[in-house]
Amino acid sequence: MLEDLKQQVWQANMNLQKHGLVVFTWGNASGIDREKGLIVIKPSGVEYDTMQPEDMVVLDLAGNQVEGNLRPSSDTPTHIVLYRNFSAIGGVVHTHSTCATAWAQAGKSIPAFGTTHADYFYGEVPCTRNLSREEIQGEYEEETGNVIVEKFEQRNPLHVPGVLVANHGPFSWGKDAHDAVYHAVVLEELAKMAFYTCSANSEVKAMDQLLLDKHFLRKHGKNAYYGQNKL
Ligand SMILES: O=C(CO)[C@@H](O)[C@H](O)COP(=O)(O)O
Question: Where is the Class II aldolase/adducin N-terminal domain positioned along the sequence (predicted)?
């Protein structure tokens, strides 16, 4: 079972490269076995071209490494905070994909401008606040998770499966590692479209709530047309 998860998480990481979301080693995907309370994540700083399923690192939710000879991804504490706080998620992804990172570096949330966005994100993709100097000097990666959780106090992470961390980049999640990759791809495309939208019309406003509801809820609501996406 854990071997299957290692294989799945390895494949999810390879798919980040396939979809052009990562340069060098800039990104990471993980998955969790909720019954065992164990997460599997890629090792830190290992080139995607050489990475193998057996290189995946296994940790418990306290951050103790229970399997693997390599160091876990440097972003592991952020992934752990998300697993601890968002109990419905089974996979997390972080990338430095160009357009999503540009919005994050600008400190701007991505407004819902159209139906492509509304099919996946129920409202803006929020951007977190900047970390304080104390947070940066302290448990930095854990604090990164905390500012994400803070942003979701009034949001459902299943309705908004991703976030921009100010000055850093996007994190996304889903029911498993592959779903989290899927949302990372969607987020990058939405970021690109939103950028072009603002270039075409600097006065553009977020879409009407009615149209947002129509698109999101028919796909994800209780009467979802696409049954597999029911919340
Ligand atoms: O955010 C960062 C670094 O700023 C990371 O995403 C790294 O670029 C990838 O690190 P590893 O997963 O290889 O440790």
Answer: 7-195
Alpha-carbon dihedral sign for residues 8, 23, 173, 185 = negative
Q: What is the rounded distance in angstroms from the CA atom of residue 80 to the CA atom of residue 63?
A: 7
Q: What's the alpha-carbon Rg for the chain, to the nearest Å?
A: 17
Locate the domains of the chain by residue range: 2-111+125-189
pTM for the model: 0.96
Q: What is the CATH number that goes with domain 2-111+125-189?
A: 3.40.225.10
Q: Ligand 1 within 6 A of 176 CB?
A: no
Annotated catalytic residue within 140, 196, 225, 226: 226
Told to judge if 119 belongs to the known catalytic residues of this protein, a careful annotator would answer yes
Q: At what angle do helices 98-106 and 177-200 cross, to 10 degrees?
A: 70
- Which of the residues 119, 122, 179, 213 is marked catalytic? 119
Tell me: ipTM over 0.90. yes
Name which residue sits closest to atom 9 of ligand 1, judged by CA. 26
